[in-house]
Each structure stands twice: as structure tokens, then as C-alpha cells.
Amino acid sequence: MPQPATEPLLTSGQAARLLGISKPTLLRAVRRGDIAPAARTLGGYARFRSADLDLYRGGASRVGESLVGSHGAPAIPAILSAEQMSVLYDAVACGVVVSTPAGEIVAANRAAGEIWGLPAEEARGRLLGALTGTIVGEDGAELPPDARPTATAARTKRPARGVVFRLTRLDGAQRWVRVDAAPTLASDGAVRQVVTSFVDVTAHKGAEEALQAGEARYRALAEHGSDLVNVLAPDGAILYESPSYARVLGAPLADLYRAFGGPLDVLHPDDRARVRAVFAACAAGDAPGDRLIFRHRHADGSWRTLECVTTNHLADPAVRGIISTLRDVTERVAAEDALRVREQHLQAVAGNVPLVLFALDRDGTLTLSEGRGLAALGLAPGQFVGRSAFELYRDDPTILGHLRRSLAGEAVTGITTMGAATFEVRYTPLRDAAGAPAGAIGVSMDITERARAEEALRASAKELERSNVELAQFAYVASHDLQEPLRTITSYLGLIRRRYRGRLDADGDEFIGYALEGATRMSALIRDVLAYSRVGARPREFAPADCGALVAAAVTNLQALSAETRARISCDALPVVPGDDTQLGQLFQNLIGNALKFRRPGVAPEIAVSAERRGDAWLVRVRDNGIGIAPEQAARIFQVFQRLHTREEYEGTGIGLAVCKKIVERHGGRIWVESEPGLGATFLFTLAAGEARGGDAGGSETAA
After folding, report:
1. Quick one: pLDDT at residue 694?
2. 683: domain range?
3. Rounded Cα–Cα distance for residues 182 and 162 (Å)
């Protein structure tokens, strides 16, 4: 039987609490020598309460002192066996380390090894500071070795309690621990050993940091957000107001109360009763209703519209007030009011113009049907709202096609016929916030009269086109057929002139000259009319035409005249364009020929041809240094048979530039002139762009 003993140091109260049993129960177990059940209880209790820090604050080191004596020997060997002591020592949930004053580990339990990430038996004989890496305090600063609890207790001979720091284990893992260290003193007062306890508070620290971060986030939202937050007592006293009041309303709430007279005076007179009723109901514990919208004074005296939600937290000891969350919705309310006005305007317009306005949801159901145009169809406004447009027009494939395309997100304009009426319908797709099709709105206009007028216009245009073709054909045939008798007249007049010159009196010779000159002019006129009629009489398919080569050919054809006038003709690189090369060649030859003809007396002609790209077209210039043209005559010169000079001054029929205009227009361009009298002229025209620029004919210069 184990020998009874006096009450050991172990039962000083802390060990009993750690074991989770009463002090008398522990005494009886110790006196019986049966510590195993108590040790098992301690192990279970430590695992169950490992997160409860209060269990270990200020007591773990004293338990260590009780459990370990000199050099790690049991402090109560007369009562506990070494095996029993070992079981109890390892069952403690906190890490317990016994070290020399220099920090050499004498003993360490299992929990200490788990904190270090190193088996406890491997730690014995090593320095405590060598078992961890960097140690950082709660302030984020590194804790030097001489400031750590074990060293402090050894140096001061006093316990160092409640020190929390983060240690880095040798495997790189980091743990937060709460450390208590207490020295054991020899009879002479020297430090014998230091008992240090470690409690792993990593989980607690993480939860505490998360709580602090969450609190900081919520405080930042309240203090830096655009919403207003206040907490009021039931009597209206301000318990808290967010700093956003100064940003949104120009001053803190208390200052606004003082400036305008009180809590009710900052409210619009028309809103005070509603706000008071909602606040009173909330204070009485009634559930809040819908969001309250009211007007509130700004510091500058203007009114701001606020949206408010109130909740009763009078029973919450942390609040004990009524929380109101408010948002400035002044601009939103103004926009909603403006939208209502626009809707009223739209309804007024829809009811008074001959249109039909309609709207469809994403399924094709009509949600709007308004407009005076409904009366023409025998319908009333809103008659078809709620019905499917696909069902209403299931027999009209044209309308069904328009509906499907518009609801798929395509803007559609179409013409449809209902009975004897014709309508132009425009569908505009609607999209949701994600950009997906969400329906369509449409406008339908009765264009029956316009459609009839357009049909009559098309018929007239067709008839005019037929007439123009016949007229052009007639001009071509007439011009061609008149050439032969005119050549006969000219030939015989020339024969008479040669045979009878001098045999008639002076008047006879003069009359024959007039007749021959008129016949010659008539021949030139017929040739020009023939050329003009040919532009549109037998059109050729367009093909790539090298403008540079066409200018070179035109210069060759005019070689005699350019040599006679000592002209200098230059040509930049010109493009290849789609067109009729015969007509474009005639265009260049007419313009260059005019520049040679309308030269200034005594001045050699200088002619430059150039081109530049302008979007999808080429702008071509033919510039000269001739006599120029008055700006008011710039449009007239392109009309048929319009001359600015007498035949005695300059020969010609007045058709050449009209031919140029017709050729340019047939090629989809336009032609005009820029000039001042005596300063030369620049003829400009546009041609559709081709794929490439000319090569060999570009950048040439010809001097005669």
C-alpha cells in the first residue's frame, strides 16, 4: 500500500483546476497512489479546452514549477512515481520547458515539441533560442534574445508573464504563442532553473485579427462611404453620426440642428409628419415599412432628397438606439421626375400624331400600343397590350420576319401593307444591363400617300429614262447620218470656190466663203454632238484604266498644238481607276486641249496634271497658266453650247466641257473649276478609287 503523505505542492489549486477535478478528489487519488485516472482526465480536458486562453494565463509556469524539481527531477518524489509524473507532465496541453539560466533545455514536454515542430526528446541539451527562427512581437518588431521571457526571468529573477509573440519554426511555419516564464531560486538566491510555458494562440490570434479587420472595414464603410448613418435615442438625441454628413449635407447633423432650429426644422414642412410617424413606430418596436423618402436641409439652405431605412436596436446593449441609414437620392429623384415628364410628353405626342407607338418584351408580348394612327386601323389605344405579336400577325410573314430580327437585337426598318394602307415600321432593339436583347420598341407611320407618290415618280422616271434613251439614240443617229450630206455640201462649196475664184465679183467670192465657213462649223458641231451622245448611248463595262497612260496618249494626240505653242506639260504619278478608258482618255484630252487653246498671248502654256487620295476617291487636278475664268461663269461653262468668247477669239462649239461633265458623272464623280481671270485655271474632278497607282506614265514631263 502506498504510504500516506502530507498534501503535496501539486494540489495548490492550479493542478486541480488543470486536471478538471476537485481538490479533495485529487488528494484521495494521490494518497492512494492512483494518479492515472486523474492524468487521463487532464489529457481529455486539455484537448477539449485547448483554445481557452484564460485557463493558462499566469498559471502554466507555476504548474511547471510544481511538476518539475531540481534538474528535471520530480518535485514530489515521495508521492508520484516517475512514470506517473511523466504521464501527468505530457498530458498538460501547454508546452512546458525547464532550462538553465543560460537557456539550455533540461526538460520539455510533448506540447512544447508540437509548438516547435520538433520532438521534445530532441530538444534536451539544446539552447532554447536555437529551436526557432525570428521572433516578432505584437507590434511587428523583432524581439531580441535578451528581451524574451525566459532570458528576462533569468536576469531579473522575477516571473515574466503574458508575453505574446510570433515565432518562426525551423520548418518555416509560423505560430503565435503566449509565454510565461518563472525562475526557481536556490537557497543562496541564485537562479537554479527557469520554467517556461508556451500556449499556442494562433487560432485565437487569427480570429482576433479577422475580427479587427472586419471592424475596420465596417467602420471605414460607415465613415468614408457616401451613405449617411446615425444612431438616435428615442427622444431624438444624437448618439452617433457618420462623418459623411459633412460631405453630403455640408455640416455635421448636430451643426445642422443648431443652424436651422432643431431636428424637425431640418426637414421639409411637407415631410415632417411622415418622418415623425415612421420614427415613432420604429421606436415602439413596430417593423419598419417601405423605404422613406423625404427632403432634408443642406448647410447652404437648399433641400436634398434622402432615402432612409430605420431599424430598432434599443434592446442591443452595444447600440441602445435607433439606427438610420440614409442615401442622397436628389439626382435620382430629379431624373425620375424628368422621366415622368418625358413619358407624359410622349403620351401626349402619341395621342396627337398619326403614328402608332408600340413596345415588345423579349417574348414578343405587346407592352405598349398608343398613337392616333391606331384609329385608321380601327383599333383603340392599349387594345392589344398583353397579347403576343407573333399570334396577332401569324399570317403575315413580312411582319413575323421583322419581329424575329428586332427581338434578336437588330435594328429593322420595313414596309408592310395592311388592307389598302401602307406603313413604314421602324424597330429599335432594347438591351438589358448585360447587353442581351430584352425587347424592342417601334414606330409605325402611315405612308400610303407617299407610297403612291413614289410609285408615280418611279413610273415617270422610267418613262423619262426611256425617252432619254430614245433621244440619245436619235441624236446619235441624226449626227451620224447628217455627216454624209454635209460632207457633200462642203466638198462642192470648196470646188466652186476653187473653180470660180476671181471670176465672180467680190461679193460672190465673199458669199461662197461664208457658206464654206458655215458648213465647216456645222461639221464640227455635228461631230461634237455625236461625241456627246456617245457618252451614254452605248456604255462599256468598267475595267481598270491607267490614268497616267491615258494622259500620255492625250499629250501625243495634241503634239502638234503643244509644239506650236511651246507648251510644257507635267504629270505626277496617277492612279489606276475602274472606268471606261476611251471616255477617260477623251476627258483628259479635252481638258489639256482647252488649256492649250485658252492661253495668254505671248506666254507659253504650262500645264500640270496631279492626283491625291481623298477617302474612297481620287481627286484629279489639271492646272494651267492661261487666261482664267471669272468665278461667276464657273458653272455655265459645263453647259451645252455655252461659250464665253467669240469664234473670232477662240474657235470651238461649246460642247467640250459638257462632254467632260457627262463623262465624270457617268464615273460617279463630279467636276468643277477654280480660277481667277488672268491667273490660270485648275479643273478638278473625282473618280472612284482603284486598287493601284499607275506606273510608267507617272511623274513625266513633256516640253515642246
Report:
1. 42
2. 539-703
3. 11
